[in-house]
Amino acid sequence: MSFLVTIGLEVHCQVKTNTKMFCACETSFADEPNTHTCPVCLGLPGALPVLNRHAIEKTLLAGLLLDCGSPEISKWDRKNYFYPDMPKNYQTTQMDLPLCIGGEVPVYDFNYPTDVKKDIPRPGLKIRLNRIHLEEDVAKSTHLGTSSIIDFNRAGTPLMEIVTEPDLQSSAEAFAFLRSLQMILQQGGISDADMEKGQLRCDVNISIRRRETDPYGNRIELKNLNSISAVRRAIDYEVERQWEELQAGIEQVQSTRRWDDDRGESQLLRTKEDAHDYRYFPCPDLLPIHTAPLLEKVRPLLSERPHERATRYENDYEITAYDASVLAADLPLATYFEAVAANGKVPGKKAANFLLNVLLGLLNERSIAISDAPVSGPKVGQLLTLVEGGQLALNQAKEVLLVLLENPDKDPGEVAQSMGFEPADASELEGFCDQAISANPKQVAEIQAGNEKLVNFLTGQVMKLSKGKANPKQVTEILQKKLL
Ligand SMILES: [Zn+2]
């Protein structure tokens, strides 16, 4: 018996700004608790909010990056509830006129979990967005047994809420969606979106039903998941739990649950009956926003998105779609790749291969990020130009690279020379070739009978004779001239 899973996400993402949403306090992480506070973000009576223009502009920019529209006028509302981390008893947010509406997030295939990557059910998936609104983050409370402590440094940090349509169908899709969204927001300069720092948090709505024609099942909300892998685990658990109950004839009641990642289970928090009635009303302290002039201001800041960059690489450098997407996904890697390929003498395909298969491996072994690579992109470009020009074999280039990693100031050509990787003089090479030909009459006969692949065997023999110093490309050319 099968069933359908329907998932919608609400992603809370801290906007990268120097100061808070409605006051001039610095935004901070891991500073001494309660050192970045003022009457506004402490929620003291009578304190008046002042809008942070940067937070609004960045949210509008996020909307442009995600193909959202914006209403002409966007306004602020109060969402009323009592909670210790929100002492003024309301959160300033946006209800009916958010900054951004609609839009979509491309889910990049390479962002699926490894075990799903080989068989993605819906490749090239796009997830529709419902809206993005801006609000203030709450204070951070930590519960210690019977008491709680609270830190207001986080209170008032600008927080975007990105709400999807119920377009997702599995935990793997949610995983890939979040990684793709995170990537777009990070590269667009909107947010650092670091889940470990709580800059990206996620509520998940899940329901299941038996078949397409059935109405949606009652949805269960999982609150405040703070890692992408926890989102995946929580969804898998919840789908299993709901399916077992459905089979046992138990209807789901619309409710909110808490995910306990340590125990690997969800626990009921509250059902619809005791859900909050927030009594939203327009904020009397803040003026509505005309979005058009702000949109015009931020439009020039719109950067290339990972999928656009990948398409450009595919077209300009003629590399595979997969390599293009891997390079484009990581901004420092993309910048490095462009620097390697910049001189135009190295075909993109070869630059990409060398980067992905050789350089990244060596850097990984040394736990060095590409952004800290000791050898610059242009220098690797120079090295590959030597390979392209037939002066150096690819495996020799790897050895030169190893030396360059230790001595980044050295010149690739000089290093190659000092290692004895010089183009051998032609007469010496010819001599080695003649030697190899006369020593292997059987193979020569086969080559001349049409088995041209055997030339590689002779090339190998010549390489041995030259003690590995000859250039295999050059050797093969000489052998072909002599035999074919
Ligand atoms: Zn403040």
UniProtKB/TrEMBL annotation:
SUPFAM superfamilies: GatB/YqeY motif, Glutamine synthetase/guanido kinase. Belongs to the GatB/GatE family. GatB subfamily. This is Aspartyl/glutamyl-tRNA(Asn/Gln) amidotransferase subunit B. Allows the formation of correctly charged Asn-tRNA(Asn) or Gln-tRNA(Gln) through the transamidation of misacylated Asp-tRNA(Asn) or Glu-tRNA(Gln) in organisms which lack either or both of asparaginyl-tRNA or glutaminyl-tRNA synthetases. The reaction takes place in the presence of glutamine and ATP through an activated phospho-Asp-tRNA(Asn) or phospho-Glu-tRNA(Gln). The gene is gatB. It comes from the Bacteria. Heterotrimer of A, B and C subunits. One of its GO terms (molecular function) is ATP binding. GO terms for biological process: glutaminyl-tRNAGln biosynthesis via transamidation; translation. The keyword Oxidoreductase does not apply.
